[in-house]
Write a structure and sequence with these properties.
By secondary structure, the protein is mostly beta strands. It has one domain (about 25-114). It is about 0% helix and about 45% strand. The chain has strands at about 10, 25-35, 35-40, 50, 65-70, 85-90, 95-100, 105, 110-114. The protein has a five-stranded antiparallel beta sheet, with no helix packed on it. A two-stranded antiparallel sheet has the order 1-4. A two-stranded antiparallel sheet has the order 6-7. The radius of gyration is 16 Å and the shape is globular. The protein starts with 8 loop residues before the first strand and ends with a strand. About 0% of the residues are buried.
């Protein structure tokens, strides 16, 4: 008999802004596509998504695309002013770990990685 907790809902938010007045970068929308079909559109990072019906499952051969709308009011003077990374869990010969992969700037305030 299995024991313990069973996940039934997840939130895409896993950070806490300690001082909202110092926040300069905002993610306003994240879309997840499988084979060019929109599966998830996150406009509220605190919303709960049902694991059984709303969290997408992917199979070998699927094309997955993530598009994020990002704002940055830092005014750092750097060129480019913003970099966006997608954090993904990846299996490689050394084991399973988290990787940061740079997303592409679409030039309209959105960034994507396929």
């Amino acid at each position: 008999m299995a024991r313990g907790w069973r996940v039934v809902k997840l939130s895409p938010q896993d950070w806490a802004v300690l001082d909202a007045s110092r926040k300069t970068v905002g993610v306003t929308d994240v879309k997840v596509y499988r084979n060019d079909t929109l599966l998830v559109d996150v406009t509220d990072p605190s919303a709960l998504y049902d694991v059984g019906t709303r969290i997408p499952r992917f199979r070998l051969g699927d094309t997955v695309k993530v598009v994020a709308a990002v704002s940055n009011t830092t005014n750092s003077g750097f060129t480019p002013a913003t970099f966006v990374f997608l954090h993904v869990r990846h299996i490689d010969p050394l084991g399973t770990s988290w990787h940061r992969v740079k997303m592409e700037d679409n030039g309209d305030g959105t960034w994507q990685r396929r």
